[in-house]
């Protein structure tokens, strides 16, 4: 129970941080009228769910929950593959 609460808090922290960084960058880009912060804000918001999956994957392996660890590792592999393919094309 304690491990689950700790993992939930870590996921919450990652999601909050990603949203905060993305929102601040978007707001900065809008206020200054520059494209670079806007683009980085969008990238930060897009990478936030990926960071969540990384935290969950590490958490599952630390809890020795191999089934869910391997499943989340597979999801992470799919996300990484889609990012690499999108960068290539």
Explain the overall architecture.
The chain is mainly alpha-helical and 89 residues long. It has three helices and no strands. The chain has helices spanning 2-32, 35-62, 66-88. α1 packs antiparallel against α2 (35-62) and α2 (35-62) runs antiparallel to α3 (66-88). The longest helix is centred in the first third of the chain and has 31 residues, at 2-32. The chain is flat and about 50 Å long. It starts with a helix and ends with a helix. The mean pLDDT is 94.
How much is the radius of gyration in Å? 16 Å
- Give the fraction of residues assigned to helices: over 70%
H/I helix tally: 3
Distance between the termini: 44 Å
The low-pLDDT segments are: none
Sketch the topology as an H/E string, one letter per element.
HHH
Overall average pLDDT: 94
The global form is flat
Broad structural category: mainly alpha
Number of beta strands: 0
Largest sheet: none
| Beta-strand content bin | under 5%
Précis, in short:
The protein is mainly α and 89 residues long. The chain has helices at residues 2-32, 35-62, 66-88.
Write the layout of secondary structure elements.
Layout: H1 2-32, H2 35-62, H3 66-88
Helix pairs in contact: 1-2, 2-3
Primary descriptors:
89 residues; single chain; 3 helices; mainly alpha
């Amino acid at each position: 129970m304690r491990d689950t609460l700790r993992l939930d808090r870590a996921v919450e922290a990652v999601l909050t941080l990603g949203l905060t960084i993305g929102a601040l960058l978007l707001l900065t880009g809008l206020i200054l009228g520059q494209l670079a912060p806007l683009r980085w804000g969008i990238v930060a918001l897009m990478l936030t769910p990926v960071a969540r999956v990384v935290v969950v994957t590490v958490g599952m392996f630390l809890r020795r929950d191999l089934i869910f660890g391997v499943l989340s590792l597979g999801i992470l592999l799919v996300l990484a593959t889609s990012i690499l393919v999108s960068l290539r094309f």
